[in-house]
Amino acid sequence: MKISxxxxxxxxxxxxxxxxxxxxxxxxADNDEGKLNLLRKGILPFFEPHLEExxxxxxxxxxLRFDTTEVAVDDCEVIFICVGTPPLDNGDADLSAVxxxxxxxxxxxxxxxxxxxxxxxxxxxxxxxxRQLQLYVSRGLRCDLVSNPEFxxxxxxxxxxxxxxxxxxxxxxxxxxxxxxEIYRPVLEQEFQCPVHSACGARxxxxxxxxxxxxxxxxxxxxxxxxxxxxxxxxxxxxxxDAVGADVTQVARGMGMDPRIGSAFLNxxxxxxxxxxxxxxxxxxxxxxxxxxxxxxxxEVENINKKRIEHFVEKIRKELWVIRGRKIAxxxxxxxxxxxxxxxxPALELLRVLVREGAEVSAYDPQAMxxxxxxxxxxxxxxxxxxxxxxxxxxLILTEWExxxxxxxxxxxGLVDRPLVLDGRNALDGAELSGRGFHYVSIxxxxxxxxxxEPEAENPAAVERGRMAEAL
Length: 472
Ligand code: UGA
Known about the structure:
By secondary structure, the chain is of the alpha/beta class. Helix content is 44%, strand content 14%. 45% of the residues are buried.
């Protein structure tokens, strides 16, 4: 089928390349001519595992090309809208890019079009879009509107496209549902050449969920908000564990065994980030408020998340006492592993706080350094974790990259000024670290002192605590 995908960001480019991989002929459009030119040369604007190969292969096979929005909407009957919906200052989603695409469709497309909104949008946006597109009926445009929310995660977006749990479509009529089923048939049947797994084996077929457009839009916001709620919940449980001397890993494991709760998204840490959860929770609160519902539960989810960095800084302060002038190694900048995305990344907020407080931060991330440097030139960026750890008085883990699980800790021990690790993602094996002479602090789990017997007196915070205790 001939399909156009408008927007060459994370969602659009992934969708375009994957639709091309399952056999469609795809025209991917963007209003950034520079980005289109780079894409035509096979240069991607962001890092996503497997995507570059997929773009190269599908372009070479003649099933993926890049063009302007005007050409794309003129050319194809099926149009996926995958443009950004960033937050406005008041927390609402900015729908101007979606509206611009609708205008372009109205001005350039003639005949029948299936317009599929994939961008994350507030409920009733589909209805609004439909009204806007109907203004062009007199010019010969007939549109069916479909909401097809995406559930791709950055870092595993390709895998998520090919092996989703469910595909949700919100439709106005049966014909649109049938066309969408045709588009997704290879995924629904799990019959395709998988770019992620050499042999997929017997994979579970995804559920096909057909709803009205309003419900489909709500499924997306409600899903992201619910997952964010799980994270804030476990983060509070972690704080409680810290306060009473329990272990959040054991608590989460015990909770997650109940299938009604599930074990996913119960990893505590420095909070959720990225371009989806923070903005979607905020937007969902606003959407509910406009509809007369006070979703105060989600406001608290946001509040808890906003305090995670403050909480982590307190942990650092407890160990280092004074932050000014301290040499701190920061490992991990991306908002999660396998992406170079630093938008709303907790690590960036921490970087800002530490630099503001006068720490000398040496940062390292396997993928996200260029993007961080562009927004935050003040830090020192290192080419590997060991260089960042040189003379450090604390090593902080902010993103759970696999690389950090395979570190030569004896080497790090020889480089640092003080063997202190604060793990903001509970990513490391604390027992191993303490066995190798590190003082290991994590989130909601007991702090582990060095097994090599680091004298307490080396810890300035402990010295100060001792002094204060004596004074009392
Ligand atoms: C999220 C959803 O998971 C996708 O289903 C959705 O399609 C996407 O948003 C979107 O709306 O486009 P993503 O933002 O890529 O995907 O990342 P997640 O893997 O969901 O992680 C979000 C944040 O939560 C990260 O900062 C991560 O570190 C944090 N997190 C996640 C935790 O702190 N604890 C957890 O247990 C899980």
